[in-house]
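Students often ask why we bother predicting the structure of a whole assembly rather than each chain alone. The short answer is interfaces. A chain on its own may look different once its partners are present, and contacts between molecules only exist in the joint model. In this exercise we take two input lines together and write out one structure for the complete complex. Read the inputs first and try to guess which parts will touch.
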Amino acid sequence: MASTRVHIPQDVAAVASGADAVAEAFAAAGLDVVRTGSRGGCWAEPMVEMAEDSGTRSVWRNVTTDDVPEILKRGSAHPKCLGALDAIDWLAGQHRVVFDRCGTDHPLALPPTVALESCLDVAPTALIDEIETSGLRGRGGAGFPAHIKWRTVRDTPAEQKYLVCNADEGDSGTFADRLLLEGDPFRLIEGMTIAAIATGASRGFVYLRSEYPDAERTFAAALKRAYEQGLLGKGILGSAHTFDLELFVGAGAYICGEETSLLESLEGRRGEIRAKPPVPAIAGLFGQPTVVHNVISYAAVPGIMQGGGDAYAELGVAPSTGTMAFQLAGNVLRGGLIEVPFGITLAEIVEGYGGGTRSGRPLRTVQIGGPLGAYLGREDLDTPLTYEAMANIGAGIGHGGIVVFDDTVDLAEQAHYAFKFCEVESCGKCTPCRLGSVRGKETMQTILDGRGGARELTMIRDLCEVMESASLCQMGGMTPIPVLSAMERFPEDFKR
Amino acid sequence: MVKRDVPAIAARHLGRVGGVLQALREVVLEQGFVSEDDQRVVADVFNISRADVRGIVSFYEDLKTQPPAPLRVRICQAEACQAVGGRRFTRAVEERLGIPVGEQNERASIEAVYCLGLCAQGPAFTVNERPFTHADKLDLDSALDLLGEAGSP
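Now the answer. The structure tokens for the assembled complex follow.
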């Protein structure tokens, strides 16, 4: 009789929670252990999946080595059993287009490439039309329509065109890119290859942040495998298409998540941003037409091609179509990755999926969209998560990070941090960002020390106005968002 | 740490996309830092000015110019970890190791890191690249002792 298969994630979030030792314990007990990516249920890591005698695939949460003998003995009667895999609300309620495969198998197990195969003989412009139909918008933060970038690159004459994947996922509270690179790297490779065929780009780069060493190892191994299998290089799957893809690892700079800074860094220089225009789709890497997309934008492409642009467009709330991989983090009971159609409310995510705060104290604020995102109050929780509804309340979805804070948070301290972060990470090219951040931090310190009043608050507002209107990129331009949203919604924290 | 063959590393990256940055990065990965002399070598191999190389080195957090301490603690300072007591945890580590964030002594260094992607399980930190989550629940003394031994030369 074949031994029972048990699935245990090798994702860094699971490993940091002790997954390696748990895997060894199951292997020592004679089970066939498969290390997988994560299903995104970070709160349950290490999350163990095993088929029971009945044939049901069951899941156990937060498994430790001490639990292993008892789980093997008692099965689903063990108190850490969450039940059958397909009956866990936290997972079953999601609609996964990008992450449907993540966590189901070993990350380097070669998946079917149906979507790519279906695109090999299609006219490039028809592929772009399909993306236009889907309504796909960039998932890195700006939400710019993907098809416009693709068509611009396609239509701009050049000897060499490039694809660049922005995997410099620096926003606090976000880890979708990491989960995908560690759990289903072939999805990104497939998505980029389809984009290459559509745009006429024959070279591509994945720019990964150095803080993700596990993602680096997995993706590098996947690239090697993809070349061996003829998924990359000359004559992709026997077709006439050529696409070469390389991994490029950064050296520690948040600003390199800004697309032009990323291109500078990729060219080997300081990651100082470039003034736009020209946009990268016209003059990007080495001055050539370049599509720059986030990991999740490219990774959405195979699902769109397979299911059809129409079907994708039916998800969500137009013009925010499709699904978004929200990442729930901070002071929350059940944090992790939740891929659902746009239109879900913040409350449904934070209270429904998240189960409220981890501390058990009342929720006071959520910050959405990373360090440049707005601090929202309880009154905002019923807002649907669409680009449009968020813009109406002065917020943005960004890369989908949602960070929960309980009532111990001090919003003046958070505003101080927003300026400090901008000071640390500013590339220094433009004055509003380089100096505005320092002046803002100092002024907030005066307020924190109890020496500030109306004069200081006016100065902060003035600084924010200058940063917002005169910075060269979103680093300086959006730092005012967390500051002003905190001042507007929590004015009591600024009177001290 | 062992001194590596910097000219060979640099030569290997010559002509490649982003070669200068990748050469500097590899030098740091190999020996822990990139010295003034190493920077001169890289500048010579790529035929660019030392100022250009210095500009790159000073821009990127990872490109250290001093040898690292045996115990390298990186603590996430970003919002998701702040929300679960990251600031308090940082102070505890500072007190335990006797140095503030951003400094090092002969035994240890504490570095600020802005997000490790472990945001649902914060506070998060790494010790000599090994990741830790839920720092608030962790026995810090034993964690640092354990890794202090592992990190000793």
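Check your guess against this: The mean pLDDT of chain B is 91.
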